[in-house]
Amino acid sequence: MYRHGTIWLGGSLIGLGVQLFITPHRLLDGGILGIALILQYLWGMHTGCSMILLSLPVFIFLSIVNRKMLISGLYGMLISSGWIELLEPMRGWLDWSLLPSALIGGLLIGCGVGLMMCCETSTGGLDLLAQWIAQHKRWNAGLLIFLWDTCILACGSWFFDPLRILYTFLTVSCAGLATSLLLLWKKNPSYWMEKTKPST
Description:
mainly alpha; 9 helices
């Protein structure tokens, strides 16, 4: 029950970050979500549906190498893409400027992705692939996601003005930081509790 609640919470944070802070300013994100946002801005495609379609190649790969991760990943992707579609009417509710929107949107998305990855699921194909590589190579999945996000944003710079791309890098940096910290906390929660305990 705790795991399901955490996954739903993570999906809702991603949906809020996307619809309240990212899409009103036509900012991007990395990974499958970032590609889906590019498709939405250019051709009006639904972000959640695009995430599902773009993740299919990775799910086919996982069906061969790790079916348990496939099932868990499908669940997380459907939850996150569902929240993004469900919260679409909230787009434009907040009239915040570009800088706080980039910061808060990135933190919300990063916390959402981090919570889902702590439960061994994710929002889409590239996050799942990062988890699979991290398990087999002992690399930090959050760092892998950040590197892939940077590549996707470099491609997005061909279609959007430099200011949006600059603030998008800020969004991705905040998201990557939040995801990495949550994954580090998961690996050793007692260490972080000790570090944050007030001294007597």
